[in-house]
Input
Amino acid sequence: MRRKAAIVASSLVMTLVAMTPLAVAQQKTVSTCRAEWRANKAANQAAGISEKAYVAQCRGGVAPAQTTAAPVIPPPAPPAAPSGAGQKTVSACRAEWRANKAANQAAGISEKAYVAQCRGGAAPAQTTAAPAGSTAPTAPPPAGPPAPTAATSPNPIPAPAKPSPLAPNQLGANEFTTEAQAKARCPADTVVWANLPSRIYHFTGTRYYGETNKGAYMCERDAVAAGMRAAKNETHP
Output
């Protein structure tokens, strides 16, 4: 029995010794594992597999999950320009650009760029030149309030009345040296200028009102009562 157990133990030891070099030979190096991870770095990062974890699995003899980089989809090729009779010539495209040269230059479209678009089949932005001599209408400035004049002024300022050249002791009854004195006597009546020598009275605003050498301010009713008359060429206010 003992001999049989010893033989079995010896067989196990020999098997382990034989398998160890094979395991060592199959174990990958750190550099190899890193190279594998970096070959698919973008896909590994997208899958959440770090380089350190990948190397640990690779070195431990566990086959790490292989990732494959996502294929790069090339952008679609631009459509080929139409050929044949429908394609415009360089001369035709240049003629179009020059027909609206001023408007194209104002829009920043060069002749070369226009011809390239026209020849490539793309419809270039058409511009229309503004008619010569035309200008954009401008709005008139807002009209301000009219300047006040003597005829339209809302509150005209009357010229101050000249005092009578006669002294108060030279005047008769109801004759005054100032217009205000006469107005105080008859606030509801018309104040006139009485030319005492001619016995004619004048209305305010006329040529002779307060301008004759000998005269006085009077209420019109007092002037009429004293035998005076109004000037013929003057209109009653």
The chain has nine helices and four strands. The CA atoms of residues 185 and 219 lie 8 Å apart.
